[in-house]
Amino acid sequence: MASKNTGAEPMLSVYNINVWYGAIHAIKNISFEVNEGEIVALIGANGAGKSTTLKTISGLLRSKTGSIKFRGKDIMHTPADKLVGEGLAQVPEGRRVFLEMSVEENLEMGAYTQPKSSIAPGLEDVYERFPRLKERRRQVAGTLSGGEQQMLAMGRALMSRPKLLMLDEPSMGLAPILIEQIFSIIEELHRAGTTVLLVEQNAQMALSIATRGYVMETGKITMTGTGQELLHNDDVRKAYLGG
Amino acid sequence: MNAFIQFLFNGISLGSVYAIIALGYTMVYGIAKMLNFAHGDVIMVGAYISFCATSYLGMPGWASVVLSVIVCTVLGVVIEGLAYRPLRDAGPLAVLITAIGVSYFLQNAAQLIWGATPKNFTSLVTFPVPGFLAQYKVSAVSIVTVIACLIIMVGLMWFTANTKMGKAMRACSEDKAAAQLMGVNVNKTISMTFAIGSGLAAIAGVLLCSYSPVLKPTTGAMPGIKAFTAAVFGGIGSIPGAFVGGILLGIIEAMAKAYISSNLANSIVFAVLIVVLLIKPAGLLGKYVPEKV
Questions:
Q1: How far apart are the C-alpha atoms of B173 and A123, rounded to whole Å?
Q2: Among B22, B254, B27, which residue's Cα sits nearest to residue B142?
Q3: Average per-residue pLDDT for chain B
Q4: Helix, strand, coil content of chain B in percent (nearest 5)
Q5: Are B171 and B182 within 8 A, CB to CB?
Q6: Which pLDDT score, from 0 to 100, does residue A243 have?
Q7: Which residues are CB-neighbours of B127 under 8 A, at least 6 positions away?
Q8: Which residues does chain A have within 8 Å of residue B183's beta carbon, measured at their own beta carbons?
Q9: Which H or E element spans position B3?
Q10: Do A92 and B167 lie within an 8 Å CB cutoff?
Q11: Residues A170-222 pLDDT 10s
Q12: Residues of chain B contacting residue A78, judged by C-beta atoms under 8 Å apart
């Protein structure tokens, strides 16, 4: 590979991907990038293809075309289970915590690819950020409330000490007060140096914390700009922010 | 009373064999979410390996068991890799039919290799039984079987609760995609589960044939089905469930044979299963989980 200026290269670059679910063309020629230190929001209505895009990046789905590069490395064909070790962690839609395992076991699973010595300090960090999880560390995850499960899913992803954290609909099904809490945690993580790719239907919240945003519609990216630009854009306001 | 205790011991030791087989079934079902109907036939292969090692190669009994465990472990991994892995994303029916196919394949392969004539398996476990047990006609095999079964169950519970691989197995059991996002190699984990289940099947095969010495290509079929019943009875996917189910099934069978009719014993076993499932659809220790769509 030619010598490259790592400072200028995006942390994640997705170029021209196309994903099918059987006969349904779910993602059409999508390209976007996430630079180190950014919060990038991917917003759009239900079914626009936001989650599909995330799943394709994390290797659970495959694109038939294009390329996906993470920190200079082509990850298009990397198996999903090899990406965590590369510094790419995903908090999946619907949290997907292991309901029959204890809170602490869930967090340990998050550090599956990490050396054993990193588990104790990792737990300490997560418990400091989410004191509620510490109180419930021995409890089975299935007994947690929705908000607590979201915290657990985020804590679990943080256990792998990711360079890029991808969050899929973290606000889904949560009360407004909890949504605000989750978003302020995302901002805290960002300030602490984590780059974030955020998929959200809650466009208002997502754009208000985002460095940049992309608007998705029926499998395509239709608009892009800084968080503030999109937040004040008339089309976006009409379509996603209730006028 | 003496006779009753004798039947009870009989049932417990027979049940322990079922339990060891059922533990293999339940491990594979719990993690791979498939019913490996070829599991019973791996038992048969295990018994043949041990038989050949002692009769033809003159190996000592313990060494033949070790060899048998190794061969069956490899066999289990190969079966999973060749027959089941390509169907990972296929529907449950395709996998089920494949498992039945593998079962017939193993039986016919065994017939080709070892012939249809039953072999006379000589018990590998012989030691003087202490007097207080000997009065109930408890055999050395029974004692070893019960102890082996307990060790295996406790071992598996410890393994799944405390080791990294065990936790990965539980994670895969709940949500394979989420486990993958954690960095768990799902194929490797399922392979490992088959290795453990098949290794246990080898031990069960040797114990089963030490117990009833007729070894033929279909030897594993009936105990396999009964152990599957035991696993469902106790709650499939649950390790203590397989143990409890196996022991209870053995006791019911022994009692039915002793007090009702030898011919009806199997029917009674399955009738009890039907009644239990009517009352507790998830089995004795299983949790009822509605099918997710």
A1: 24
A2: B254
A3: 92
A4: 75, 0, 25
A5: yes
A6: 62
A7: B140
A8: 81-85, 112-113, 160
A9: helix B2-32
A10: no
A11: 999 899 999 999 999 999 999 999 999 999 999 999 999 999 999 999 999 99
A12: none
Residue B260 DSSP symbol: I
Residue B96: CB atoms within 10 Å:
15
Chain position carrying tokens 């995330």: A54
Total Cβ atoms within 10 A of residue A57: 24
Of B171, B177, B182, the CB nearest to A84: B182
Supply the pLDDT for residue B286: 81
Q: Is pLDDT at B1 greater than 80 in this prediction?
A: no
Structure confidence by residue, pLDDT tens digits, B117-139: 999 998 888 788 887 888 888 88
What residues of chain A lie within 8 A of the CB of B175, using their CB?
A: 96, 98
Q: In this prediction, what percent of chain B has a pLDDT beyond 90?
A: 77
**pLDDT of amino acid B292:** 44
Task: With a cut of 80, say whether residue A1 has pLDDT above it.
Answer: no
How distant is the Cα of A192 from the closest Cα of chain B, in angstroms? 22
What pTM did the predictor assign?
Answer: 0.89
- How far is the alpha carbon of A55 from chain B, nearest alpha carbon, in Å? 10
User: Which helix (H) or strand (E) element contains residue B215?
Assistant: strand B214-215
Q: Tokens 């009065």 identify what position?
A: B135
Query: What was the pLDDT predicted at B289?
Result: 56
Q: Helix (H, G, I), strand (E, B), or coil: what is residue B175?
A: coil
Residues 6+ apart with CB under 8 A from A137: A102, A103, A104, A127
The DSSP string of B57-117 is S---HHHHHHHHHHHHHHHHHHHIIIIIGGGTTS-HHHHHHHHHHHHHHHHHHHHHHH-SS
Q: Distance, in angstroms, between B243 CA and closest chain A CA?
A: 20
pLDDT tens-digit profile of A49-87? 999 999 999 999 999 999 999 999 999 999 999 999 999
Output the pLDDT for position B288: 61
Q: Which two tokens stand for residue B21?
A: 């087989």
Asked if A92 lies within 8 A of B182 by C-beta distance, the reply is no
Nearest chain B alpha carbon to A97: B178
The residues of A whose Cβ lies within 8 A of any Cβ of B are 58-60, 79-85, 89-90, 92, 96-101, 105, 108-110, 112-113, 156, 160
Question: How are the residues of chain A apportioned to helix, strand and coil, as percentages rounded to the nearest 5?
Answer: 40, 25, 35
What pLDDT does residue A31 have?
96
Q: How far is CA A58 from CA A87, A162, A214, in A?
A: 11, 13, 19
CA A74 to each of CA A60, A106, A239, B133: distance values in angstroms, whole numbers, following the listed order: 16, 29, 35, 68
SS3 assignment, position A181? helix
Rounded distance, CA A70 to CA B139, Å?
64
CB atoms A99 and B178 under 8 Å? no
Helix, strand or coil, per DSSP, at residue A110: helix
Cα(A26)–Cα(A11) distance, integer angstroms: 25
**Chain B contact probe: residue of A81, A103, A152 with most B CBs at under 10 A:** A81
pLDDT for B79: 97
Q: Which residue has the tokens 């299963």?
A: B273
- The first and second tokens of residue A206, run together, are 């997502």
Tokens of B80: 């999973």
